[in-house]
Amino acid sequence: MSESLLEALDTKTQRRLTSTILLTLPMVLLTAFMYVGGGMPHGWRATVPMILTYVFVNVLFFQMLRTGRTDKYRAAFFITMAITFIISFMTNLIEMRGSLVLSAADMAKGETPFCHMVIPMTIIPAALTRTIIFPGRILGGFADVATMFTLWIGATLALGRGFCSWGCFYGGLDDGFSRLRKKPLIKKISERWTYLPYAVLVAIVLLSALTLSPTYCAWLCPYKAVTEFAAITSSTVVVQTILFYALFIGLVIVLPILTKKRTQCGLFCPFGAFQSFSNKINPFEIRINRDVCKDCQVCAQKCPTFSLDRNSIENGRTRLSCMKCGRCVDTCPKGAIAYHVKGTPLTFNSQRARLLFIYPAFLFLVVFGGGMIRDGIYRILLLISTGSMIR
Question: Residue 337 phi/psi, 5° resolution?
C-alpha cells in the first residue's frame, strides 16, 4: 500500500475520531449535569458508583457513535439496568417498609411503587370513575403515579414502542437471556402467537374496568417473581404466586434462551401491545430500502421482537410491534435497513436520522436507568464493605 494512501486513511480515521468525540460531547455534558448538578455525593460508597456509572454511560455512547452499531451497546446498558433495577428496587422496598411482602396495610398507606405495566389498566377506570386503580401515591414517595405517567408520556412521544427497548426496566431480562446461546433451538414460532399480547391487553383492560383492580398485576405479571409479592395468606395467593414464577421462568428465562427472542415482550406483554399503537404517532421508524434489499431474510431471523416477516420486508417497513432496538439495522448485510424520520424521503441521510433518534433514546435510557445502575453498584459496595445492602 502506497505511503500517500496510508496517509489518506490515517487522516480519515483521525477525522472520524474527532467527529465522534464532538458528537459525544453533548452527552458527556448532559450526564455530568445530571449526576453532579445537585452537588457531589458524600463518602466513597456514593462517589464510586457515580463515577463508574458516568464512565459506563459515556463509553457506551461513544462506542455506539464510533462503530455505527446500535443494538450491541444499547443492550449492554439495557441488561445492566435490568439487573441493577432488581437489586435497587428490592433494597429500597425493604428500607421503605421493612419487607418485600406487600400487605393490605401497605396498600392502604399507598406504599406500592407504581409500575408502567399498569398504565393500560388505569386509563379506562380513571376516565370512567376518576379513580386510579393502583394502591400507590399520586405524588411523592418512591415511583409515584404522577412521575411514572410523566416519564411514560415523554418516552412515548420521543420513542413510541422504543420504550420497550430503551426504557423498560424489566425488558433487559428477557433481552439478556435471549443472548446466551449462539443459535436458537426453536427456530420457528407461528405468527399467530404474535397477536396474543393484544388479546391479553383487551382482556386485562376489560377485567380491570369491571373489577376496578389491576388484574394483570394480581394474576399474570411474571416480574412479581423478582420484585414485591403478596403475603401468602390463602390458597388464592398460592395460585397467584405459582403463576408468577411459572410465567417468569417460561417467558423470561427458558423461551428466550431456546428461541433467541424476547418472548415475554413479543408474545405476552399487554403493555407492549398497548405501546405498539404509539408507533403511529412517533416521528421515528425503521425502514427498508427495497432497491437495496436482497430478500435474504436475515433481518427477520435476527429480529428479537417478531417485528419483521416476509410481508413487512416486501412493504419496506417493520410491523407495528417494532421496538427500535436496532438489531436489524446492525445485521443487514446490504445496509438496506435504517432508522428513518417520518415525512422525509428514504434518500435522507440515514446516519443523520440515526443520530436524531439515538440522542433522545439514549438520554432517556440514562434518565430511566442511570440511577438504577448507580444505586445497584452502591448496594453491592455496601454489601462488600458492611455485609448488608441495607443502610
Answer: -110, 140
Query: pLDDT tens-digit profile of 348-361?
Result: 888 999 999 999 99
- Is residue 224 within 8 A of residue 112, CB to CB? The reply is no
d(CA 238, CA 275): 31
18 falls within a domain:
no
Number of H helices, E strands in the chain: 18, 4
- Interhelix angle 119-129/145-159, rounded to 10 degrees, is 110
**Grid coordinates representing 335?**
445496509
Q: What is the pLDDT of residues 274-316, one digit of tens each?
A: 999 999 999 999 999 999 999 999 999 999 999 999 999 999 9
DSSP 344: S
Same domain for 108 and 255: yes
Question: Helix/strand/coil (H, E, C) string of 363-385?
Answer: HHHHHHHHHHHHHHHHHHHHHHH
Is the CA virtual torsion 332, 335, 340, 345 positive or negative? Answer: negative
End-to-end CA distance of the chain: 62
Return d(Cα 287, Cα 340) in angstroms, integer: 6
Would you tell me how many other CB atoms lie within 10 Å of the CB of residue 26? 12
Q: DSSP assignment of 47-72, as one string?
A: HHHHHHHHHHHHHHHHHHHHH---HH
Bridge partners, 111 (sequence order)? 136
The residue whose grid cell reads 463508574 is: 52
142 and 218, same structural domain?
yes
Please indicate, yes or no, whether residues 166 and 128 belong to a single structural domain of this protein: yes
**Residues 243, 244, 248: CA angle, nearest 5 degrees:** 115
pTM above the 0.85 mark? yes
142 within a domain of the structure (yes/no)? yes
How many CB atoms lie under 10 A from the CB of residue 357? Answer: 25
Query: Given a cut of 60, is residue 5 above it in pLDDT?
Result: no
Give the residue numbers spanning the domain of 257: 100-282
| pLDDT tens sequence across 195-242 | 999 999 999 999 988 888 888 988 999 999 998 877 888 899 999 999
